[in-house]
Every structure is written in C-alpha cells, then in structure tokens.
Design a protein that fits this description.
single chain, 2 domains, four-stranded antiparallel sheet, two-stranded antiparallel ribbon
Length: 273
C-alpha cells in the first residue's frame, strides 16, 4: 500500500479535488504525502470497449461522419469518463488510514456507465408517476421516405410527440364526448432502430382507462389500431407541412405526402383481402 496514517481528522472521510494529477507535487494534507499520481492514473484508468473503439476511430468520426457539436461533446465526455486527469475525490479512513480514490464521472447519457445509471434513475422516477392499472405499449413509426426530413431538421421531432398526443387524447375523447375521458401515457422518442439506422419513432405507454369529468375511473380494453394508425399519419403529415418553410422542400414534401396516403390505402386494401 502507498498510504500513511492521516493525523488530525475529525470526520470519518475526507474529500479532496484532484485537478492536476500529472503535477510532480503530490496531494498533501498538513505535510503528509498520500499517493503517487502516475500510479493512481494507471490503476484507475481502465477503459471499457466503447471508449477504446471511439478513441481508435475519433478522427474518422469527426472528419468523415461530421457529427453535430453536441454529439462530439458527449463523445469527448464518454472517452474521458473515469480519467483521474480530469479530477476525482480522495477518501481516507481516520482509523486505519486506508485511502480510496474515486475519479469523477462524465454524467453523459451516451456513456455506458453513466447512461445506465441515468436510465435506472429515470425509470424509477417515472414508475412513481404511473397509474396503478394495466398499460399498453404502442409504437408510432413513420415511413422510410419521410425520415430524412427529421434528420435535416431536428425540430420536426417535436411533431412526433404532438401527433401522438393528439391521437391518444382524441381516441379517448371519442369514447364518451360528454365526459372528456383523459388517459395517462408516457411518450419516449427513439431516433434509431435495432440495426442502428436513422429511424425516429415514438414508444408510448398508455393506461387502459381514463378519468372523466365525474372523477370516476373507466376501464378501456379496446384500442382501435386502424384508427390510431390513420389518425397518426394525418396528424403528423399536417404538422410537418405546417413546419416546413423552405418552398422547394415543401413542394417535394407535398408529393411524398400524397404518395404516403396512396401507399397506406394500398396496404389497407391488401389487409382487407
């Protein structure tokens, strides 16, 4: 071990920021030397597979794929996550003198370590908001011909949330228009599919029931999927047409909008047969 007993501690642990581990001067507390920076750096900087992969292909990603600024920022955070050169905390036991160094983490959702913790905390927080009833999982997707619009203009991704929300609220409103039934639902955006291709779509968790103006809960087991599919298509295409302002792009979108309706009608006719 490379520690010494630490005198004059009035707490069970200490916390020191290590901002310059490559500095020749070790961290000291009232004159005692605690560690060798290079040894700590080698001991704690054990990168995972994803970090090694992005380090090896960093220049290729930056200059060939041309990712957005926010994407490069998260890649940099993930690559340097757990690197003691970016700081950490030193904890010491006043009884036995044992030291424990914990490097700072990046707190990026892109990081496999920090992202997993974020997902767990997010799922736990959302579980407290869920209504205690049966829920149904629905996925709202778009055709391949429309995906490039969302890639070129990320603001259009909001249309997916707005269209999905309007369809769900309308479906429950039609159950009993005088009661204004309102369900509980959670919408989550995924911008990629299983093969990791660009494929924005919405995952939705909908309660099998809702509350009306009277305050009583009404259970709903039947969901009209043909209605949801057609209503989502109409709502999304109308929202996208309103949001696209470029004249040339808007003219192209109107053609693809008409083609999308035609493909949907052909699909419905084949399913009816």
């Amino acid at each position: 071990m490379i520690y010494k007993s630490i005198p004059n501690f009035n707490k069970l642990s200490i916390k020191k920021c290590l901002r310059h581990l490559n500095s020749p001067a070790p961290l000291t507390h009232e004159g005692w030397g605690c560690f060798l920076p290079q040894l700590i750096h080698n001991e704690f900087m054990k990168r995972n597979t994803l970090q090694d992969l992005f380090r090896d292909h960093y220049e290729e990603i930056q200059y060939t794929l041309h990712p957005r600024k926010t994407e490069m920022e998260n890649i940099d955070k993930m690559i340097n996550c757990g690197d003691p050169a970016y700081g950490g905390a030193m904890y010491g036991c006043p009884d036995c003198g044992t030291l424990k160094f914990v490097p700072f983490r990046c707190h990026s959702r892109f990081c496999p370590t920090c992202g997993a913790m974020y997902s767990q905390k997010r799922a736990q927080a959302m579980s407290f908001k869920l209504i205690n009833c049966q829920h149904r999982h629905c996925v709202f997707t778009i055709s391949k011909e429309l995906r490039h619009y969302f890639l070129e203009d990320r603001d259009l991704l909001n249309c997916l949330f707005e269209a999905t929300s309007s369809v769900i609220n309308r479906m429950f409103y039609k159950i009993n228009k005088s009661q204004n039934f309102t369900p509980g639902y959670i919408l989550v955006l995924h911008t990629f599919g299983r093969p990791l291709e660009w494929n924005p779509h919405i995952h939705c968790l909908i309660s099998e029931g809702g509350v009306g103006d009277t305050g009583f809960w009404r259970k709903v087991k039947f969901f009209s999927y043909p209605y949801m599919r057609h209503a989502f298509q109409t709502a999304l295409l109308n929202l996208m047409e309103d949001r696209i302002t470029d004249p040339n792009k808007k003219a192209l979108f109107k053609k693809e909008k008409a083609l999308s309706y035609k493909m949907n009608r052909d699909l419905s006719s084949r399913q009816a047969k």
